[in-house]
Amino acid sequence: MHPQSHSNPRKDDFALTLKPVRESVKLARDLVAVAWDHWGLGDDYVPRLVASELVTNSVLASEKYGVTQDILFRCHLDGCRPIIEVRDGISEPAVLIPLSDRSEGGRGLPLVAELCAQWWMHWEDDNRKVIGAELAVSA
Predict the structure, then answer these.
(1) What's the CATH number where 83 sits?
(2) How many structural domains comprise the chain?
(3) What is the mean pLDDT of each run of 10 residues along the chain (139 residues)?
């Protein structure tokens, strides 16, 4: 699988077009490592974990709903704040669900909420969902 890189005039913008398959999660983590190194932000463990959770959620939802549209993954700086975004073709909203000790899944978004300065969800004009997270470090 060869992800498509998006050329962008901003040198601090890193993006990939990913297939909605589990192997895409590693590609997203790898891109985060490149971005964090480029920005000189130091330890990239938390942002790679956030990328893993967001892309995994998108891949699993694509499998559940039979969606085959590509996932657009992006890391960029908003001023000096690093942002990770995942854009997919899932019409269902991402929801923080209450967890119990018996829950076998559903921990990704609560984990993202705990590890990030903030997270959000919105729909683009083409009705594709975007989930974004601002990491709690500054460039």
Answers:
(1) 3.30.565.10
(2) 1
(3) 43 93 98 96 95 96 94 95 95 76 72 92 89 86
